[in-house]
Amino acid sequence: MRWEDENYVKLYTRDTIYWIALSYDAKSLFLQILRKVDRRGEIALGRCGLGGIAVAIGHPEAWPKLEPAFNELLGGNFVVVRDGSVSVVDFQESQRRKKKKYIRSGIGKRLRFRVMKRDGFRCVYCGTTPDLKSLLVDHVVPVAGGGGNEESNLATACFDCNSGKATSAISPQDLGRH
Ligand SMILES: [Zn+2]
């Protein structure tokens, strides 16, 4: 995998009770659907009906296996089917929120990638890797506390560690980077 090619490192990262309740197959189908939706969060189904989902994610043969997982997603209101499309619920809303955060933090795509690369694509606080949890780049000393966008003030963190430090700044000595 080339990380430069990935548009989204962070996606729907909150472990809500609804998410936790999904089976492994449903979780994995949802993540694959997210990779294929358009800007409005939709996949047009075409002539195959619901089987069009399997076509969209590149596994047309797998629909019989995917159908129960898809029904779980429908039941949990993760997706809805309307007008010949599957649509991810609140997709645009979630994108807007992400964009806002991005503008506020002002950490450009390239800078973020450099920091992630420097940190070995691991959370500097707990060492987790992006195949286990989504990673983001954030300020060590928050902007509100006078922290800037210099690389020394940026660190790769998983969502959990990042939200844990939201109220208090972590000093660079706490980082555990040796
Ligand atoms: Zn972490």
Which labels suit this protein?
Arc Repressor Mutant, subunit A, 3-stranded antiparallel β-sheet, two-stranded antiparallel sheet, 7 helices, DNA Binding (I), subunit A, 2 domains, 178 residues, binds zinc ion, 38% helix, alpha+beta
What does this structure look like?
- The protein is an alpha+beta fold and 178 residues long.
- It folds into two domains: 17-93, Arc Repressor Mutant, subunit A (Orthogonal Bundle), CATH 1.10.10; 106-175, DNA Binding (I), subunit A (Orthogonal Bundle).
- The chain contains seven helices and five strands.
- It has a three-stranded antiparallel β-sheet.
- It is elongated and about 55 Å long.
- The model has no long low-confidence stretch (mean pLDDT 81).
- Zinc ion is lined by residues 123, 125-126, 128, 157-158, 160-161.
- Zinc ion (ZN) binds next to strand 5 and helix 7.
